[in-house]
Design a protein that fits this description.
This protein is an alpha/beta fold and about 120 residues long. It has a single domain, classed as Sandwich (Immunoglobulin-like), CATH 2.60.40. Helix content is about 20%, strand content about 40%. The strands form two sheets. It has a five-stranded mixed sheet, with no helix packed on it. It has a four-stranded mixed sheet with strand order 3-2-5-7, with no helix packed on it. Strand 2 and strand 3 form a beta hairpin. The radius of gyration is 18 Å and the shape is globular. The termini are far apart.
Length: about 120
């Protein structure tokens, strides 16, 4: 009986650790040179949270939420119109750097594009 409780406890701890790893580690995706890459806007989040792309890559944000979102860089480099459900916005990154962005309607929604 004692072993069953120990195995059950370890199983639960392992599952929680795996879930925590995915919830609290930002997703990082690398794009291939010249390819288009999409950021999914869904459930008030940007996925992936951090996206790494080469210079001259076009990133497309696609809104899957039932409400509008506006994609805006913190430094004013790019800004979309209000995107309704299933609408998209694209921007081509021609200079290396780190571009933090947010939804100007829902400022707690944040993400980052890293251009190398």
């Amino acid at each position: 009986m004692k072993n069953k409780i120990l195995v059950g406890s370890l199983t639960v701890a392992l599952c929680l650790s795996i879930v925590g790893l995915f919830l609290f580690q930002p997703t990082r995706v690398k794009a291939e040179a010249g390819s288009g890459t999409e950021v999914r806007v869904d459930n008030f989040t940007f996925a992936p949270h951090t996206l790494t792309v080469p210079v001259n890559s076009t990133v497309t944000w696609g809104n899957k939420d039932d409400i509008p979102h506006v994609i805006a860089s913190n430094d004013g480099v790019f800004k979309s119109k209000a995107l309704d459900t299933d609408q998209k916005y694209s921007y081509t990154f021609t200079k290396a750097g780190s571009y933090a962005y947010y939804c100007s309607i829902h400022p707690k929604m944040v993400g980052k594009i890293v251009v190398q």
